[in-house]
From TrEMBL:
Its EC number is 2.7.2.4. GO terms for biological process: homoserine biosynthetic process; lysine biosynthetic process via diaminopimelate. This is aspartate kinase. InterPro entries: AceGlu_kinase-like_sf (IPR036393), ACT-like_dom_sf (IPR045865), ACT_Aspartokinase (IPR054352), Asp/Glu/Uridylate_kinase (IPR001048), Asp_kin_monofn (IPR005260). The keyword Transit peptide does not apply. Transmembrane segments: none annotated. Residues 352-409 form the Aspartokinase ACT domain. The keyword Cell membrane does not apply. It comes from the Eukaryota. Belongs to the aspartokinase family. Residues 54-221 form the Aspartate/glutamate/uridylate kinase domain. GO terms for molecular function: aspartate kinase activity; ATP binding. Keywords: ATP-binding, Kinase, Nucleotide-binding, Transferase.
Length: 442
């Protein structure tokens, strides 16, 4: 491991020399790099002598890289005459004594916010990796994203910025639809639905955290920092804003006083999940429907299958989920399910999901969406809607590009609202988070 650490130190030292011109700042930075790499050597020696390389050891190694990278960034800022301060998450995390996830989140959010406030006018550069507290390890979210979300809440930030390598969320995948346009804003509910369907704009954890303070999230492009990006608005803010994509005729929900009054609504989202396996199973009729469904779900649970799509009636069930089976495993699953009823398995399918606030109370949306698919020659295998803000269908994977282009061409247009009164559906394409930064209220 000594040779590996030597290479790491050399790489960081070369980066420091190429990034910092001030001799004094560079000298201090080189000392920091040397000390951190020496610590890493001692740590690896101790780990090798005791228990080998455990998960905590691996976390400590990664955290060392985060420290050095953050210190280099601080040095670069100082070299440019910008006051900055390095903050190690380890120092804050070590002061929190809680294995309970919720308590850890609350305590950490308050602690990191207090530490940031101590920086005053200096720009804080914070490491984003946790490697020491069990409360953090139980979280199913990236540590950098955890840090940004809890920090935004702790500071009561006016905005949380998520920096990516694209401009934001588009009306369709720009690689497939040349006319795809950038969406100005979407609601938190829509973003959460995107994450549920396997297209996370940001994690559900981040959405849940910022919703506590109604903090908007702005998606930005590192290659175009002056671009507006896409904003994920708190739901009430989103519903009260107008948009320029044309009319979205919506009847109010039955529980509201004016059921027939029409509202302007902004566009919704469509996402595609490919590499889907679809199973149709019809009961032999010898058992009650509840027992039949229970047996089906028990079998799927035994195989650890997370379902993406389910539709049922009294003696039939349709299922769709990602095809991640090892060779021969799907045959064994099909064999077990065939004991419960007549089974049909279809490979290379895709799930098309339309997402939008108050979808069920939107007049004519589903009819327009599915009729456009049928008229375009896209065969719909199954249709389902269990959510108030989404509806889905299963199609053949070979039709996904056609379906995407068809919906985009027929429903996403900038229309003259005085002349047209149709439903407008907007297609969004999701991307993964690269860098997240909260902005504190002034």
């Amino acid at each position: 491991y000594n040779n590996t650490v030597d290479l790491i130190q050399l790489e960081y030292s070369n980066l420091a020399r190429s990034s910092v011109s001030s001799r004094h700042i560079l000298q201090e930075l080189q000392i920091e790099i040397h000390e951190d790499c020496d610590w890493l050597r001692r740590f690896l020696f101790t780990s090798q002598s005791l228990d080998g390389t455990s998960s905590k050891s691996e976390n400590a190694i990664v955290a060392t890289g985060e420290k050095i990278s953050s210190k280099i960034l601080v040095a670069v800022l100082l070299d440019q005459g910008i006051s900055a301060e390095f903050i190690s998450i380890e120092e804050i995390e070590s002061r929190i004594d809680s294995d309970d996830e919720n308590q850890f989140i609350r305590s950490f959010s308050a602690a990191i916010a207090d530490r940031i406030k101590e920086c005053g006018s200096r720009i804080p550069v914070v490491t984003g990796f946790f490697g020491h507290n069990d409360g953090a390890h139980s979280l199913e979210v990236g540590f950098a994203e955890f840090l940004s979300a809890t920090l935004a809440v702790g500071l009561n930030a006016s905005e949380l910025q998520v920096w990516k390598t694209t401009d934001g969320i588009f009306t369709a995948d720009p690689a497939k639809i040349r006319s795809a346009r950038l969406i100005e804003n979407i609601s938190r509910m829509e973003a959460a639905e995107l994450a549920h369907h396997g297209h996370p704009v940001v994690s559900t954890f981040t959405l849940e955290q910022v919703s506590k303070r109604d903090i908007p999230i702005r998606l930005k492009n590192v290659n175009d920092p002056l671009g507006d990006g896409t904003i994920i608005q708190p739901d009430l803010t989103y519903l009260n804003q107008n948009n320029d994509y044309g009319p979205w005729w919506v009847k109010e929900a039955p529980s509201t006083p004016s059921i027939d009054r029409l509202h302007w609504r902004r566009p919704t989202t469509i996402v595609i999940n490919e590499s889907i396996l679809m199973i149709s199973l019809s009961s032999f009729g010898a058992v009650p429907s509840s027992a039949f469904l229970a047996d089906v779900f028990d079998t799927l649970h035994a195989y650890g299958i997370p379902l993406d799509f389910v539709t049922t009636n009294h003696n039939h069930i349709g299922l769709a989920f990602e095809d991640r089976f090892a060779e021969g495993e799907i045959e064994r699953l099909a064999d077990e399910l065939s004991r419960l009823g007549k089974i049909v398995v279809q490979f290379r399918m895709a799930i098309l999901t339309l997402v939008g606030d108050q979808m069920r109370s939107s007049s004519g949306v589903s009819g327009h969406f599915f009729s456009m698919l049928v008229q375009g020659g896209v065969h719909v295998e199954m249709i389902g809607s269990a959510s108030d803000i989404s509806m889905s269908c299963v199609i053949h994977e070979g039709d996904t590009t056609k379906a995407l282009r068809l919906i985009h061409q027929t429903t996403f247009r900038k229309l003259d609202v005085k002349k047209v009164s149709v439903n407008i559906d907007v297609i969004l394409f999701t991307i993964r988070t690269a860098l997240i930064m909260p902005i504190q209220k002034i």
